[in-house]
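Protein chain data
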Amino acid sequence: MDNKHSFSPLIYDYLKKYQEDPTSRIFAPLAEAYRKAGLLDEAIEIAREGLRVHPNFVGGRVALARALFEKKQYEEVVNELSIVVREVPDNLVAQRLLAESSLMLGRLSDALGAFKMLLYFNPGDIETGRVVQELEAQAYEDGMLVLRKDPAPQKMMIKSARDAISGDEQLLKSQHIARIEVLQDLLMRIERYRVQARAAG
């Protein structure tokens, strides 16, 4: 952080305030400014420093997760945001980052759960609705979701995909390949959504 004179005015302003009071929550917008400037390592460093002082500050944790996501550190994004979405489920930024990171990690059921929460809080989101439909279809096909045969037939239960597939290794392999292809298609769609969102923002 010694190259502060080369920073944009916004970063310099936030950095000055942060240096004046390292215990303030200004670290979160500072981390965001770093991230937007492409300074991801700096964003992660400042966010982690701030969270040591304010471990329960949701804005700081989301700022950290954004930078980690752009560095493709999806496992860490999931670790950072799992607590956030449990305590603040209507934080749509956290839910989307968690959904996309879970999908990147190939965790279909976790991704589906997060995308469903996004749709719950924003039912008019057509694109998220389509992603949920596609993930549900794939989850049923893989045997990860089955309909319960009880008085509430529409409730779903999680079932191991491997348990739902016979011991036929060839079938298992073809199922795995099909799932990868669907995930790749979904990742491409999500990347397009992110590009569109950035352009709109």
Remarks:
- Residues 1-71 form a domain with the Serine Threonine Protein Phosphatase 5, Tetratricopeptide repeat fold (CATH 1.25.40.10).
